[in-house]
Amino acid sequence: MEKRELEICTRLTREDVAGIVEDLIEGLKDGCLKVHKGGEYLQVDVPRVVDLKVETDTDEVRAGLRVEVSWRTGSRANPDNVPDEPPLEAPVKSAGARRARSPASRGGKRPKSVAPGEDA
User: Fold this and answer.
1) What pTM was computed for the model?
2) Is the dihedral of CA 14, 19, 20, 22 positive or negative?
3) How far is CA 38 from CA 22, 64, 109, in A?
4) Rounded Cα distance, 113 and 43, in Å
5) Given this model, what pLDDT does residue 83 score?
6) Cβ of 35: how many Cβ atoms within 10 Å?
C-alpha cells in the first residue's frame, strides 16, 4: 500500500475546532475517517481497537494538547486485537468550562467531512 498523507494546519475558533473534533469522533464511532483539504481527500478505515496517545503541556507562553490515534494496517493488522487497558474515565472539565458547540448546534450547516478553513 502506498503511503498517503494529508496535513492540516490552520487557526480557528475554539467552537469551530470542537465541531471538527466532533466530526472526527463520529468517524471513529462509524469506523471510517474522512478528511479533505481543498481538492485533496483521504478516507481511512478504523479498526475496533486502536492505540491512543494524549499529551498536554503548558508554560508561561503557550499551552497545547496533542491527541494521536493510530493502528496497524494491511497484513500487519490484527482484527481480533483487544485493548491493553480498561477504558479511561472522561477527562475532568475545569471549573467554569462550557461545552463547546458545533456549527450545527449553533444553527449553521456542519460539513460532512473534516475540512478546516473551508466554507461548507
Assistant:
1) 0.63
2) positive
3) 20, 26, 18
4) 10
5) 67
6) 20
